């Protein structure tokens, strides 16, 4: 690292549907907290909006328009205020929300660090072209997760996607 001033404001994105996806978040937050270039980490699920009018939202079904608008706006605010994004990307269950957030950050000319995970490290590594070319850096979640503690978020050096079949 050339400069360890904590200036980076991270948007930590991830799908949050499975136990494995949820379990990665505290570890990522811990690693980012150790990083001397990180000033702040915004994790959207820490800012969850609760619509007091909704009944049993955890059961599923259609969420209220109030909840949808507030949640979307909170996430856009987090993305807009971030200097870069870190995405714990589930290669086993691709998430449209994460893909949108990655695209939004790149449209704002902000770097994106992709941390892909898979429960089956022996399966073929395949990634969509728009994700592979859209991210600034890839840090393999299964073998390099610890690099989040030392990555230079001030200069966000590129490490392009390599070793994946691109579709």
UniProtKB/TrEMBL annotation:
Entry superkingdom: Bacteria
Keyword entries, A-Z: Transferase
Pfam families: Nuc_deoxyrib_tr
Matching InterPro entries: Nucleoside_deoxyribTrfase (IPR007710)
UniProt GO molecular function: transferase activity
Name recorded for this polypeptide: Nucleoside deoxyribosyltransferase
Organismal lineage: Bacteria, Bacillati, Bacillota, Bacilli, Lactobacillales
